[in-house]
Amino acid sequence: MEVNELYSLQKIEHIARGDQAFLRKMINLFLEQAPSSVKDIRQAYEKKDFAAMAAQAHRLKSALDTMAITSLQQDIRALERMDHEEAGTAEAGVLINKLETVIDQVVAQVRTI
């Protein structure tokens, strides 16, 4: 996956309509909240609190969409929809691992802009 494919600021830039302070605020909000949300998803999964895992996935979904992190759009929706039986499977763990990896990469890249 190439750097320019991980995310896009185009949607946020469109919403900001040239307001650089607003743009920076939205980016900083993502940088603060996305890693925390991913951590909460991991902790809920490990505690087998699948309702909390789904709720955290739901909260993170809009940020992923706004940042156009397309590689995670289906995965976050899958985590959000998983019932208790599915959430306890290895598939959920694989999706969370991917979520952690991609968010870490995006955060590192966004911090450089």
Automatic annotation (TrEMBL):
Keywords: Phosphoprotein. Residues 19-113 form the HPt domain. One of its GO terms (molecular function) is protein kinase activity. GO terms for biological process: phosphorelay signal transduction system. The keyword Ubl conjugation does not apply. The modification Phosphohistidine is found at H58. This is Hpt domain-containing protein. It comes from Chitinophaga agrisoli. The lineage of its organism: Bacteria, Pseudomonadati, Bacteroidota, Chitinophagia, Chitinophagales.
